[in-house]
């Protein structure tokens, strides 16, 4: 059984092409049944691959769409995927719609996978993530913001440095001696495409 990752796409390009992709999602949304029989249901990523004219057996598409929204010329597609971003879905979108660039952010805490291909931070400006057992998780654009937030949690001044933040959280959790007080701090790695 895989670890499940949360992956978010920001599909950006010519409005006509972005709307066509949105219409493909609306088509899937309106269906009562899946296009292809599978274990995920109608929101299986393979259904989108097939709807876009691809062969689901040739593209990595293990996962499902959990939410989508069109805002201007940016289409957001949220997914739960096996292990990591299923790049086959991104590839078929960019093949089918040449003007569209798919920016993504993936998070899989089990193996510490935190990646994005948004090098400029235009679509995913948050570069740091504080995961919390009590669902009080937070995203931060700068390391300084993260350090200030962790300083409030720990009651101590924390230096704006990834290792210093991690050490301060470890020390705080040890002092609390409470299984329900769990934090982990992560930096999104920017991958080249």
Describe the protein's architecture and organization:
31% of the residues lie in helices and 28% in strands. It is built from five helices and nine strands. The strands form two sheets. A six-stranded mixed sheet has the order 2-3-1-4-5-9, with helices on one face. The chain has a three-stranded antiparallel sheet with strand order 7-6-8. It has helices spanning 15-30, 45-51, 87-96, 143-154, 162-176, and strands spanning 4-12, 63-71, 74-82, 101-108, 113-116, 128-132, 138-140, 183-187, 189-190. With 193 residues, the chain is α+β, with helices and mostly antiparallel strands.
Which helices and strands appear, and what pairs or packs with what?
Blueprint: E1 4-12, H1 15-30, H2 45-51, E2 63-71, E3 74-82, H3 87-96, E4 101-108, E5 113-116, E6 128-132, E7 138-140, H4 143-154, H5 162-176, E8 183-187, E9 189-190
Parallel strand pairs: 5-9
Antiparallel strand pairs: 1-3, 1-4, 2-3, 4-5, 6-7, 6-8
Helix pairs in contact: 2-3, 4-5
Task: Please tag this protein with its features.
alpha+beta, six-stranded mixed beta sheet, 5 helices, 31% helix
Summarize the structure.
The chain has 193 residues and is an alpha+beta fold. It has 5 helices and 9 strands, in the order βααββαββββααββ. The radius of gyration is 19 Å and the shape is elongated.
Any low-confidence stretches, pLDDT <50, length ≥5?
none
Number of β-strand runs: 9
Shape descriptor reads: elongated
Strand content: 25-35%
User: Main beta sheet, described?
Assistant: 6 strands, mixed
Round the mean pLDDT to the nearest integer and report it.
Answer: 95
- The SSE order reads EHHEEHEEEEHHEE
Radius of gyration: 19 Å
Q: Count of helices?
A: 5
